[in-house]
Amino acid sequence: MMQEKGKLIVISGPSGAGKSTVVFKAIEGREDVCFSTSVTTRKPRPGEVDGREYFFVDPDRFKEMVENDELLEHAEYVANSYGTPRAYVEEKLDAGLNVLLDIEVQGARQVHEKMPDAVKVFIIPPSLEELEKRLKGRGTDTERAIEARLIRARQEYQEADFYDYLIINDDADKAAKELSAIILAEHCRFNDRKEYLK
How far is CA 28 from CA 23, 33, 108, in A? Predict the structure, then answer.
């Protein structure tokens, strides 16, 4: 049987939507799915290993990677730069692995420009009221930070029509099944399998 290429799955959604929970449930026990490892200019934290949590590079190397178009997307966050290395992703896809990217809308748009075949999935809670409840329930943010996250969520919702799929995470197990089904369905696309007809 022919080696099928993996799919690049871009996951976005507001903070507090439960993306991580859904993704980890969806990929549990699967050998055909991996997370992309990002490049960052921040220093490694204790216990972090280069190439596992991140590829750690200095700012000059990062700038060089941007100039040489080695990144599918990049952004700055709290004075450090982060990006998705194109070669790493392509190597995993060529090996038949589905690569998951959990990134914000702007990053998803950058990836789409460079890899238009990327499958874009937007995950949301059933309502903004539920999102607020979840953010408050985490106990990690101030009221002001929660309000900022809710404003950001509304902005992201305005851009959600850019995505191919919308998952409503009112039940993490059900949402994980939907994500698994999307990955499966994407592998059954006619254009990806027409070689079998020859």
Answer: 8, 9, 24
- Structural domains of the chain, ranges and CATH numbers in brackets: 8-188 (3.40.50.300)
β-partners of residue 9 are 100, 119
Q: Which residue, chain included where needed, has tokens 């191919």?
A: 164
- The CB density around residue 4, as the number of other CB atoms within 10 Å, is 13
Q: Are 131 and 44 in contact (CB under 8 A)?
A: no
For 46-61, letters b (16+ CB in 10 Å) and e give eeeeeeeebbbbeeee
Gap between the Cα atoms of 125 and 196, Å rounded = 40
Query: Residue 6: phi, psi to the nearest 5?
Result: -75, 170
pLDDT tens digit string along 86-107?
999 999 999 999 999 999 899 9
Q: Tell me what the mean pLDDT of segment 49-57 comes to.
A: 92
**Inter-residue contact 36 to 100 (CB < 8 Å):** yes
| Residue 45 Cα distances to 48, 54, 60, 62, 85, angstroms | 6, 10, 20, 19, 20
Q: What share of the chain is helix, strand, coil (3-state, %, to 5)?
A: 45, 20, 30
> pTM of the predicted model, to two decimals?
0.89
Assign 3-class secondary structure to 143-187.
Answer: HHHHHHHHHHHHHHHHCHHHCCEEEECCCHHHHHHHHHHHHHHHH
Residue with tokens 């009112």: 170
First to last CA, the chain: 13
